[in-house]
């Protein structure tokens, strides 16, 4: 067998958001660096042989090379590089997070430093620049790094520090999508989906080229990383990638028209905010016309941002607009009608009793998660977007373009 393990852990988007939200709140310095020829540093655990490179003459016919380190064409190269980097950081005193193996932390107080790894791209955050410089020198000695300085771009996401906080957007990526789809000069729309629309897999005529639809939806899915306002529309359309129709494509084009109105709009992580967890949960019963299944969504705010060295001083607040569900969770008397959720219900009750979770009712008008479960009319959609904590960094100089 040539290889056993090929999977290499990469930072989850939730971890990236939390990392940057905490860094912005605490006014930490955030720098970016990458490793030169990262995969060439991985040590191989298996015996791997390759033919001699062109122009290299062996002493005997049919000679081959035995690899001691990985090459970029090897399927296990990514895995072996990650193992080498992890071992190096652990040896330097870093601790690997249990919830995400791509997050490493070290020290406390002013000596605290956090690293977030995405293959060979590394984010480093600390309150002290000397801590960041020390880890740069250590990694450069071990691997040879490329110091990219203060965070500007990461995974195609633009990061900009202002007096208000840290703004993340994918303006260039959004404009590339519009340009490639031929919508760069289209007329903008106020909402990403027709209010009250109910799409079905049987609507319309099947597309002659379903690949174009799948490609577009895939690109839009990544755009939701900084544009939560299009999340419902994109996820709804992603349910039809197996057999898309012209109606589904028309709905996807409406999302492009909405993006045209504010391609630079993104998430804002404010400074000096209280880092307490708040969550909103909402369900639309049963909204899917094909399966009659319900749509359940939630959004979680860390302070005012959608934890690193953050102590939870107060219980996590969960806002839900179903008073019956809140009553069942807080009531210790078992109800026969809730047998199907017995385990989950008891877990929630335990967390409430421990003071870790606090359930609070919220009106539908103030339910932030409502926009993640259905297509809203313009008035309600505007209110929904305003509560997401987004900001269009490019509006003043570019007029919304």
Task: Give a written overview of the molecule.
The protein is of the alpha+beta class. Among the domains are: 143 residues, no CATH class; 109 residues, no CATH class. Helices cover 31% and strands 21% of the residues. The protein contains eleven helices and 17 strands. Strand 9 and strand 10 form a beta hairpin.
Task: Please provide the count of β strands.
Answer: 17
Tell me the number of helical segments per DSSP (H or I, 4 or more residues long): 11
The secondary-structure element order is HEEEHEEEEHEEEEHHHHEEEEHHEHEH
Strand portion, in percent?
Answer: 15-25%
Gap between N and C termini: 53 Å
Question: What is the 3D form?
Answer: globular
Strand count, sense and closure of the main sheet? 6 strands, antiparallel
């Amino acid at each position: 067998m040539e290889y056993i393990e090929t999977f290499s852990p990469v930072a989850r988007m939730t971890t990236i958001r939390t990392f940057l939200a905490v860094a912005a709140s605490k006014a930490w310095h955030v720098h970016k660096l990458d490793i030169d020829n990262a995969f060439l540093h991985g040590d191989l655990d298996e015996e791997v042989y390759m033919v001699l490179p062109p122009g290299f003459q062996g002493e005997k016919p049919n000679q081959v090379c035995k690899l001691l380190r990985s090459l970029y064409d090897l399927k296990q190269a990514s895995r072996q590089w990650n193992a080498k980097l992890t071992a190096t950081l652990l040896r330097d005193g870093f601790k690997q997070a249990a919830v995400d193996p791509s997050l490493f932390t070290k020290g406390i107080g002013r000596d605290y430093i956090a690293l977030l790894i995405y293959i060979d791209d590394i984010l480093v955050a600390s309150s002290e620049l000397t801590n960041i410089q020390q880890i740069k020198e250590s990694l450069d000695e071990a691997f040879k790094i490329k110091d990219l300085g203060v965070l500007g771009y990461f995974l195609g996401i633009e990061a900009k520090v202002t007096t208000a906080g840290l703004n993340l957007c994918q303006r260039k990526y959004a404009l590339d999508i519009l340009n490639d789809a031929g919508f760069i000069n289209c007329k903008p729309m106020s909402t990403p989906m027709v209010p009250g629309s109910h799409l079905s897999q049987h609507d319309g005529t099947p597309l002659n080229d379903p690949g174009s639809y799948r490609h577009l939806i895939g690109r839009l899915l990544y755009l939701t990383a900084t544009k939560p306002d299009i999340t419902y529309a994109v996820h709804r359309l992603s349910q039809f990638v197996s057999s898309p129709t012209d109606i589904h494509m028309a709905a996807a084009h409406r999302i492009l028209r909405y993006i045209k109105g504010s391609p630079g709009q993104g998430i804002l992580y404010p400074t000096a905010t209280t880092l307490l967890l708040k969550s909103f949960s909402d369900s639309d019963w049963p909204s899917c016309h094909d399966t009659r299944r319900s749509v359940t969504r939630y959004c979680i705010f860390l302070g005012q941002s959608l934890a690193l060295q953050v102590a939870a001083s107060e219980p996590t607040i969960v806002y839900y607009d179903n008073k019956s569900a809140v009553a069942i969770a807080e009531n210790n008397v078992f109800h026969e009608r809730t047998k199907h959720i017995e385990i989950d219900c008891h877990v929630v009750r335990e967390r409430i009793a421990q003071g870790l979770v606090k359930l609070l009712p919220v009106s539908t008008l103030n339910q932030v998660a409502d926009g993640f479960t259905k297509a809203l009319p313009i008035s309600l959609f505007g209110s929904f977007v305003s509560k997401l904590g987004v900001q269009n960094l490019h509006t003043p100089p570019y007029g919304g373009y």
